[in-house]
User: Fold this.
Amino acid sequence: MSTGIERQPEQLSADDLEALIGDRAIGRDDHMNAPAFVINPDEVQSVLSDLRERAGYDHLSCVTAQQYDDRYESIYHLKKYSDPTDEVSIVVPTTRNDPVSESAEPVFRTADWHEREAYDLVGIEYADHPDLRRILLPETWQGHPLSDDYDQTKPQVVTLSEHANPIQPDHEDAESDTMFLNIGPHHPATHGVLHVETVLDGETVVDVDPDIGYLHRCEEQMCQQGTYRHQIMPYPDRWDYVSSGLLNEWAYARAIEDMADIEVPEYAQVIRTMGAELCRIASHMLALGTFALDVYGEFTAIFMYTFRDREVVQDILEDLTGQRMMFNYFRVGGVAWDLPEPREEFIEKTRDFLDELPAKVDEYHDMVTSNEIFQTRCIDTGVIEPEVAKDYGCTGPVARASGIDYDLRRDDPYGYYENLEWDVVTREGCDNYARVLARMEEVEESAKIIEQCLDLLEDWPEDEREVQANVPRTLKPDADAETYRAVEAAKGELGIYMRSDGTDKPARFKIRSPCFSNLQVLPEMSEGEYVPDLIASLGSLDIVLGEVDR
Assistant:
C-alpha cells in the first residue's frame, strides 16, 4: 500500500442520499459505480448545494451532456476530495423542445466551462449561467455538433469582429487607463494554440479570459464511431500528445473493463503500472523544461537537460511499445505484448536510468529551484488557495501543491499501486514554486514505483506471465449501462464517461480532461498580478491544448 495518509471517511448509502434529496428526486438511473438520482431542471442548485454542504461532495469532477430520442440530459458527476470512491451522479433531463436547465455554476465554479461546452456541442441551455456562450466553436457557428440533427455538410461562415475591451467602461477614470492585450494563440508560452484575452490597468492584470477551441480534435465523436474492442484505443494517445500516452490509454481501458466486467491479469497490471510511471516522469520533465523557458528564457541548459533525460525515458518506452509517442500499447484486458527480449537488457537499461535519476534531480535543484531569478518569479505568484482549487475542480500536481491530498492511484486504487510502497506528494505553498517542487518530487516517487515493478517483473514465474485476459472479439455491454471511471494522469484526474446502447460502439463517450478544468483557474491566479506572472502561472498549470480542446 501507499505510505500516504490513509483516510476512511464515512460513506453515505444510497438510501441516505435519497433521504437527503427527498421529493426533489423524480427517479433513479443508477450508474455502474455510483447511485444516480434524476431531478427536475429547476432543482439543480438546490440539490447540488445540499450534496456539497450537507453530504461533503465537494468535487464536481465532470459534467456530461447527451441527447436521446425524447430528451436532453445533463449528468453532474460528484465525488469527495477526501474519498473519490464515494460518488453520486445527478441526472437532469430536459425536453427536446425546451432544453433549458438551471446552472450549477453558483454552487461549483468549475461548472462554468463544463456547461458552456455542453451548450456549445450538444445544445442544452443553462439558466442563470454567468457567461453562457460558445467555448470551443466561434460565436457565429450554426448548430451543435453532437446533437443528432446537426448537418455536417452545411457550410459555415465565420465572421470576424473587432475585439472590445470587456471592462473598459467600468475601469476608466482620470488617473488610470486600461489596455486590451492579446497573448497568443501563436506564442510559445501558451503551450499550444491558446488565446488569452488580457486587460491591463497600467501593468496590473485586471481581467483574463482564456479563449480555447482552436484545435477541434473531435475525439469524443470519433470514439463514438469506433468499436470498443479495437478502434478506440489508438485515440487516447493523441489527447495529451506530448507525454501521457499510456496514462491516457489506461483511462479508456479502465472504463471499458469496468463496463464489460473484464479482469486484467496481475502480471499485465504490473507492466501497466511501470509504463504509466515512465510516462509520468517524461511528462514532468517536459513540464520543468518548458516552465524554465517560460519563466527566465533558459533554453541552453535547463530546457535541453530536461529533454536529454526525457529522451532516455522515450527510448525505454520505445523498447517497450515500439513507438516514441503514439504508443497504442494497452489493450482491453491487458497490454499488447510482454517486455522486449532479451528481458534482462530491458530491465538493466531501465535500472540504469533510475540509478542516475537522483543525481539529475539534484542537478535540477541546483540549477532551477535554487536560482534567485526563478524564485523571485515563482514564490508567492499564481497562488491558488485550497478552497479555490476545489471549487474549480483542480486535480493532479496543481491541487496537491495547494495542500489537497488527492491522488486516485491511492484513493481509488487500480493497477498494481495498492501493493507498492510510495508516497503522495503534497505541498502547502499554493504558488507557482510549489507546483514545480511537487512535480520534481513526484518524479522521485514514480522512480520508486518503477523500481518495485522491475523487481516483480524480473522474478515473476515464467508460466504466469499472462499479458491479456480472454476478451471476446466483439464487446457489446448491456444497453443503457453507464459508467464514469478515472485514472491519475500526469496532469490530474483523466476520466471517461461511457453509455452503451447495446451495440459494439458507445452511444456517448465523454472525456474529462484535467487540463480543461485546471485551465479555468487561470483568472483567479493572475488577476492583480503582472503580465510576467501571468505567463509563469500559465506555465505552472502544465496544460496541453490537445487535451483541453479534445
